[in-house]
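Known limitations

Structure tokens in this collection are predictions and should be treated as such. Users comparing against experimental data should check residue numbering before alignment. To illustrate the layout, the record for Ribose-5-phosphate isomerase A is reproduced below. The input appears on top and the generated tokens appear beneath it.
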Amino acid sequence: MSASEYKRQAAEFAAEMVRDGMVVGLGTGSTAAFVVDALGRRHKDEGLRFVAIPTSVATEQQAQGLGIPLTTFADHATVDLTIDGADEIQRGTLNLIKGLGGALLREKIVAAASSRLVIIADDSKLVDHLGMKTLLPVEVTPFGWEATVRHLEKFGAQASPRRNRDGAFFVSDGGNLILDCKFHEIVDAAQLEQDIRSVVGVVESGLFVGMATEAVVAGSEGLSRLAVG
Ligand SMILES: O=C(CO)[C@H](O)[C@H](O)COP(=O)(O)O
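Generated tokens:
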């Protein structure tokens, strides 16, 4: 079975966690898109009643197209359940790297307001140490990004701005740039998150430390539910 099929399996399992009356955070990316599809079906076919806060313009457009009722933080202080993907999930801690899809800021705002953050993925995303497979995305203001790179280099990062295929800078939904950062080894994710945040010009990092409450991971061994610890 393909990675995409495993993503779909994890997503459809997690979509069943949504109950009538919930405020639901909708993640971004190819795995989260399967959740949005599944919730659109549950809304239409089963009459499931919920409202959703999307974490990107792309997810908002997908949800709107499926008739999912959307809401904002103007009307809801907390989110009952957010279901989102990740680029790396550390075994045991469920600390994450997110943001290869470029939506890390909105994803983190929604995650921080959520009572439950369920991460869905195919099993290729599980790692023993964060940073083993992917670069760490860091969202920064466009002004002075070169200075921000130099500050991040003091913490051991090799950072370069993400570009689109045409060579132009990738710009996030919030109008910011993404620096993709290579760290030799991420030993203490909480400390690194603090260090990155201390740099002027950084808006947010793609390290999600202590935020995920559960992960649903699918692979050749079947589907597993992982909790912290
Ligand atoms: O953090 C993200 C977007 O900012 C995504 O959740 C992450 O990139 C995983 O994407 P995919 O489900 O396509 O593998």
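For this record: Residues 27-32, 84-87, 98-104, 107 surround ribulose-5-phosphate (CB under 6 Å). The mean pLDDT is 97. Please report discrepancies through the issue tracker.
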